[in-house]
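Could you join me in thinking about how sequence relates to backbone shape in a protein? To get us started, please write out a protein record for me. Would you write everything just below, so we can both look at the same thing?
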Amino acid sequence: MYFKTLNNILLVSLLSLLIPLNIGAQITYFPDLEKQDLDDIFIKKVEITEQFTIIDFYYRPDGEAWICLDKTFYITPSRVSDLAYMIMAENITVCPKMQKIGSAYEDLEFRVWFPKLKRNIRRIDIVEDKRDRQGINFYGVSIINGQEKPTPDSLDQKNRKNFEEFFLEYANNLDPIEGIWKVELSKTHYHDERAIERNYDLQNLEIALVKNGNTIHAYDLSGRSLESNFTRVSGGKSYFFKKYFREVNQEVSSYIKFLDGKKFDLDITIPENMARYELLKKFFPHDKIVYNHKFTKDFPTLKQ
């Protein structure tokens, strides 16, 4: 591959097909890696579906540049020669046809499909041209993250009516925060503890909180685990919250803040690689994103 900024050309290649994808993927955001040959191309995401390994890239040149993707692009388990060549790509041209990136303020996101990797592969190499240090070459890319950890079981309840029936049946034995809650979720972007953008990407959700042992787990109303849980603080009315982000294999925690018997707030700072994925070109060192949750009890009525 040839790389050129202003007077240098970045050479890369691509094949395009239309192939349907299956749902239910292993995903890693901004994976850790041992080495890369170019500093201005990043791996945004590695996704392993039932059919493919799909890799999203982000290219941010210092100035005017030309790019194309070489058709010999491949992935292989690290330190093993088991090459799986590119099947197709999106939003980038195949060499020798070149694609221009206009300025330092313009960037490019592109996606490449490869054959599905075998199970239990922890690290891969992503190689365009091993002989060329100007190639899109990444070595020792970690893709396992939290995927070795079992996914929590779903509940038998599969809709709101099922959950209402369940909570009515056990109404006399519920923890105060068990039930169906309406949640208003917003996000705030901070740089060096200064708010850059407040309350953006507003979402309204409904979740169910169900106790199992000493822990209260969160589910969507189809019964799928949200990999979040609450534990009552000993000797008090507050609860300790934990959320697992499987895509980056990290857990965050916080305490809830009761406003009254039917409402509480919960703020969490998401892991840095999740923030980097969400912000992308807006991301700088020391940036963070705080998820602001406002919970309102919807069913059943909270006993005072």
User: Anything to note?
Assistant: The CA atoms of residues 228 and 243 lie 4 Å apart.
